[in-house]
Design a protein that fits this description.
- The chain is mainly beta.
- It has 2 domains: about 70 residues, Elongation Factor Tu (Ef-tu), domain 3; about 90 residues, Elongation Factor Tu (Ef-tu), domain 3, CATH 2.40.30.
- It contains 4 helices and 12 strands.
- The chain has a 6-stranded antiparallel β-barrel. A 6-stranded antiparallel beta barrel has the order 7-8-11-10-9-12.
């Protein structure tokens, strides 16, 4: 489990269809082989460790669903170690299981802040609520606006400068993980014998 608070930017030094090696520093502290690190929001297991890098396997499913297929050596990626039991939940509950990719529509500066708009799979929009949380390239962000399947998030200067958002351009793709709590609510509503009249259609019709 992760929080969506990025610890550092790592640099891809080797990328194959089944593994990735990333040069980094901060996330290597106290990390052991077998530990989890989120790379652009994708939970990966450390397979090999060196003084300045780690290597992790990447499954075919991760290549298919995420932006790993778009990465190249020299690209920067957002890194976060798994949340320790005694750690603080600074963002929101992030599983590291990416739902799919979002396409950047615009990234505009708004005074010192930034407004990021991206296109999301219409089937995933149902898990998004205004002022709710969403994970973009592993970053915990708050949804500022929803218009059809276009999601807008507001980005503070610190987040922009310390993540790979500053390298994004219109047309770039990002990894998206919607709020896991919404998925559990949906599952519960679909499986239980619902006599209250409150179902998924009711919640969507009333803005949930």
């Amino acid at each position: 489990m992760f929080t969506g608070i990025i610890e550092e930017l790592g640099k891809v030094t080797n990328l194959r269809s089944d593994s990735v090696t990333i040069n980094c520093k901060t996330v290597l502290n106290e990390t052991k082989i077998g530990d989890s690190i989120a790379v652009n929001g994708v939970c990966l297991t450390v397979r090999d460790l060196k003084n300045d890098s780690f290597t992790a396997d990447v499954s075919p499913e991760s290549f298919r669903v995420t932006t790993f297929k778009d990465l190249a050596s020299g690209d920067f990626v957002n890194l976060e170690r798994a949340l320790p039991v005694t750690g603080r939940l600074g963002g929101h509950f992030v599983s590291g299981h990416v739902d799919g990719r979002g396409k950047i529509i615009s990234l505009n500066k708004n005074f010192e802040f930034y407004d990021l708009k991206f296109e999301l799979d219409p089937q995933k929009v149902k898990y998004c609520v205004l002022k709710g949380s969403i994970t973009v390239n592993g970053i915990s962000l708050t949804i500022a606006n929803i218009e059809n399947n276009i999601i807008t998030v507001a980005i503070i200067p610190h987040t922009f400068e310390n993540t790979n958002l500053k390298y994004l351009k219109n047309g770039s793709y990002v990894n998206i993980e919607t709020d896991i709590l919404a998925k559990y609510v949906e599952k519960f509503l679909l499986m239980r014998d619902n006599k209250s009249g409150i179902d998924l259609e009711f919640l969507q019709r009333n803005g949930f």
